[in-house]
Write a sequence for this structure.
């Protein structure tokens, strides 16, 4: 008996990355190539848009010109838009099912971080709990993305390699910039990561590869101690080179668990007299200025680190496309309630991964920090084991198309 | 009569750029190709190093492997190191002349901004004033570089095009990042430029080319008015798209000439209780939060905009090499006390420049702001005349060599 043709829907959720559109390109390719999938709907702004029936037909963009998929894969942020919404209780899910019926959806793909996996878990759990109610058969597949690399089970997350490549590339450039003067100076680079230091750890890569990288690295995985920090910096400043470059995760905490950064500033002397939040870079900058007294500046990589598609990792973009395609294959095989994962092959001289699926329940809402055996015993952050883990993920450069001096992006 | 062989010395000064090493590569190539120049000395950390006789022989790095020049040209910041020193009075210059004798220097090349041109002016002026004293014949040539593009006479400065390309590329990526959510939000991007807004104006390029760029631009060339600013932002927020992206020069000033940014923060509630300086981005961020109340964040491009060689403009790098080479040719022709300049050819359908020299006295210590006929009458910053001026400067991409995922740099 031939399969009934059904439609697919795909959405993106959570913070933007340089690879989330690559995964979308993979899902679209997988759907286009299947004779069991008819229309591919994109939900605008994730599940929020789906609930509002804000859907866009994606096929037309790519059926005639498959090269548009390459353009999409190298466009940063979420082409379909994103949201921060978590799906709530059964009442909400019932409405979602009405729409799944209305649009004849058989395959539901959701690309995102922890919140998105939670949505996939809730939808598939609902289907399981109501198996006797004659619900339509929908395959719910989650495909991970986060620059934070903090999801469980998967070896790494799509998006991380590109952000890590940006950090490594930029750290080398910042170090060159710092190296031109003879005066003692400290530069603090604040890198994203509230609960896990994976991205900040990438600041060790250019140091390892070229000697031009972070001299000191502070991660959320280790409690921050002011005195130790000042001693570390003073020791580095007493070395042969006059400049010290420090990488710090936005999420470093004191031993009591409170954040070092993100403090509210009040009553300061700004021309408008407002309050202001400041990040950990500025906090450490003022600490160095006061306790050591040398020149100090802080640099926040900010959103640049997550949307710099022009210097995305080819490894990351290729893998992100593949895991998207694989998500479609697994759904067509009948899997549901799964998150797609990477497994790094051991006993291989070269870096190789295989893709598998795992029950989304076992990965949702777990934050995977850097394991203790990847951390160094001193203040350099991570050890060679962690370097070996990160290195293959930043490798390779994409054939970015430029027009008039800037990259060409895909436009929905 | 054959010319006597003499040595050359070259130095770099002022803030790093992505193109200052390209100019160094040009000077080295010019020297290597001349049979009238023997040794090429590099002064470490500019004139400061020269006075300390901290010199390095450059020929050996390139004589055997000319491709190292390509690597040097794509290495950010100053390979020879830099300084912020201005040459002082005659006593200091007499000592410099002793060293010029000692090292048999006939050609003196100095790559830098306004301070460096001041040094060339002083040295050549001293030679002129003491023409009757039998001083050795040294040709002093200044070659400009600054991301600020604020030197006089020259159409533009080496280094500007690459920084502008980084700004345009990054603004497009930041806009994509901002576009993913439906909630009203303002993003303020702080760009370098104390006295001239050329680099901030580059934020208009991606808007012009793709629609994804700064919605509002604030430049030092126009006095900043708080009320107008809030009105501008509110008007943009009431448009169809929920996000507004603002580009602002670090050096914008109120009508009374005081800086909007760089205010000292005191008595704020940070965990260490220190004072802190803040930039204009943070100041405007708090202003928007308080007066409009929508989500607002600020992004400071910081040193990244001046050292991002991985996305340097090919036009800029090629021109920077050529102007370095031309400097050597002009010195060999007997010119001294000159700054090398670009002239844009009119009556040409395509962008073309020619290189010429100008008395350094007529360029030193002049800041060239954006001319009034390049500014728009509204809050969008600059007009199409300015766009036409900037566009060719960011064009073209370089063949950056990557190894293990990050660019390979030249190492002295």
């Amino acid at each position: 008996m031939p399969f009934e043709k059904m439609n697919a829907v795909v959405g993106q959720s959570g913070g933007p990355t340089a690879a989330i559109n690559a995964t979308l390109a993979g899902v679209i390719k997988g759907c286009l190539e299947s004779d069991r999938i008819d229309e591919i709907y994109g939900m605008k702004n994730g599940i929020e848009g789906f609930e509002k029936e804000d859907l866009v037909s994606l096929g037309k963009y790519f059926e005639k010109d498959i090269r548009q998929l390459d353009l999409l894969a190298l466009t940063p942020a979420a082409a379909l838009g994103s949201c921060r919404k978590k799906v709530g209780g059964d009442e909400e899910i019932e409405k979602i099912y009405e729409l799944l019926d209305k649009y004849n959806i058989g395959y539901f793909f959701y690309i995102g971080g922890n919140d998105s996996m939670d949505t996939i878990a809730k939808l598939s759990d609902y289907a399981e709990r109501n198996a006797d109610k004659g619900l339509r058969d929908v395959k719910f597949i989650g495909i991970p993305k986060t620059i934070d690399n903090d999801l469980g089970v998967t070896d790494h997350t799509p998006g991380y390699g590109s952000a890590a490549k940006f950090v490594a590339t930029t750290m080398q450039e910042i170090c060159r910039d710092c190296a031109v003067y003879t005066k003692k100076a400290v530069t603090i680079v604040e890198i994203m990561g509230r609960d896990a230091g994976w991205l900040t750890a990438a600041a060790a890569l250019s140091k390892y590869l070229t000697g031009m990288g972070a001299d000191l690295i502070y991660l959320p995985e280790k409690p921050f101690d002011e005195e130790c920090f000042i001693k570390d910096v003073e020791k580095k400043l007493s070395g042969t080179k006059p400049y010290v470059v420090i990488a710090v995760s936005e999420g470093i905490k004191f031993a009591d668990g409170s954040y070092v950064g993100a403090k509210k500033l009040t009553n300061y002397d700004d021309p408008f007299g407002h309050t202001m939040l400041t990040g950990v870079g500025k906090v450490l900058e003022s600490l160095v200025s006061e306790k050591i007294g040398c020149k100090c500046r802080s640099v926040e990589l900010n959103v640049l680190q997550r949307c710099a598609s022009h210097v995305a990792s080819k490894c990351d973009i290729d893998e992100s496309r593949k895991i998207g395609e694989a998500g479609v294959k697994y759904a067509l095989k009948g899997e549901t309630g799964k998150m797609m994962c990477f497994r790094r092959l051991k006993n291989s001289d070269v870096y190789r991964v295989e893709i598998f699926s795992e029950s989304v329940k076992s990965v949702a809402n777990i934050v995977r920090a850097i394991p203790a055996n990847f951390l160094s015993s001193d203040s350099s952050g991570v050890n060679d084991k962690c370097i070996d883990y990160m290195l293959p993920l930043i490798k390779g450069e994409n054939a970015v198309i430029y027009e008039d001096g800037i990259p060409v992006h895909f436009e929905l």
About this structure: Chain B touches chain A through 81 residues (CB under 8 Å). The radius of gyration of chain B is 23 Å. Residues 374 and 386 of chain B are 5 Å apart (CA to CA).
